[in-house]
Amino acid sequence: MKRTILLGTCSLAALALGTNAGASDTNQTVELDALVAEALEKNPELNFYRAEIAAAKGERVTAGVLPNPEVNGEIGRKRAHEKSGGLAGEGTAWAVSVSQPFEFPGRIGLRKAIANRQVELAEIGYEQFRAALAARVHALGYRVFAGQTIAEAAQEVGARGKELVEVLVQREPAGVTPLLETRIIEGTVIVLNRQAIEATKNAQVALLELNQLRGQPVATPVQIAKTTLKFPPLPAAEELLAGARTNNFELRTRHVELAQQGFRVELSKNERWPAVTLSPFYSEEKAGETEKTVGVGVSVPLPLWNRNGGNVQTAKARLQQAETSLLLSQRQVERDVRERALAYEVQLKEISRWRPDAVQQLREAAELGDRHYRLGSLPVSTYVELQEKYLEALEAILETQAEALEAWQQLELLTGLPMKGEPEK
User: Fold this and answer.
1) Collapsing DSSP states into helix, strand and coil, what is residue 71?
2) 6-to-121, 195, 417 alpha-carbon distances in Å
3) Which domains are delineated in the chain?
4) Which of 16, 162, 172, 179 is deepest in the core (most CB within 10 A)?
5) What are 324-335's pLDDT values in tens digits?
6) Residue 85's pLDDT is what?
7) How far, in Å, CA of 227 to CA of 143, rounded?
8) Of the candidates 420, 412, 406, the residue with the CA atom closest to the CA atom of residue 247
């Protein structure tokens, strides 16, 4: 190959190659859709988002509950004396009261509205994570498939070259040219084996993350079934932007946060007025005569020094921040949509230039070149070029398709809905 491949350690790559080679015979082939379904069912991080929804719903219940009443009791002894100083009577005096605070009208409703928006935010976060998880698993699965395909092709070409070298070594060299040709082929085999190791290592790295996302032990081997992607034409830019304005997860979150902060401003204004506490009470005193008292006490704080002005000012500032955040998110989402659409369009144009059977024809050409070189009707330079170009073209095709798939999936995430013409597997 006419490129330089840098590896941290050859032993790590060799270990990855050995793992893949040993697993390919025993692994069950898995479709990409099956991997996505498994991840959506078993990914452990989903429990975090489910718990977040449950916590938000618990806060909503708490927001609509009145404060608990408070029971107060008093007991003592009472002595009554006549004007002359003599004891008129002695007995027990006791009293009991119940205090119940009542919020200013509308305050509980505002708290419930804030809590409802918190539930909505948690649900949007859950939906967003599921969509991102499905896209990531799909992309990683295709990366694993691409790495395994390139590794198998490189091993196939390398094995063919190794067999050829063994044949050439057994022949008597008739000059320096056959010897040099043998060395060229030996060097090509070394490079091809290195490329196979690199491709396998890349597939194993992607597989580690894939297994983690689908809730499996990271070392679990997986063989991806053969996957053919068909990419649909790109929708109009305005259609994409309209979908993003309505359904984009980030914008939906910002809209809900803005509405929630508006309720917080109203709540801070409402809290300028104090709560009223009603306290029905009953008391009884026995000291010669029996006295009973029944009544209702009212307690209202006087808002003289604290009218909640600081909290109102803070809430209004947070509202302004939420408005700015929404505006910035709208601009960023529009930019991201256009960037991803451009990337997808570029990849799609490149893919449209290929013949459907380009890889197969290059593979057949590499095999044909091997046969004709053995017969002596093909120079070694053409033989080496055929083997290298086959693998380079295979890698370029798979990488371009992987990038186009990721760009399409990002467009789906940005618009928040599955668009028409979803890539077929």
Assistant:
1) strand
2) 45, 11, 40
3) 15-66+103-272+307-415 (1.20.1600.10), 68-102+273-306 (2.20.200)
4) 16
5) 999 999 999 999
6) 73
7) 11
8) 412
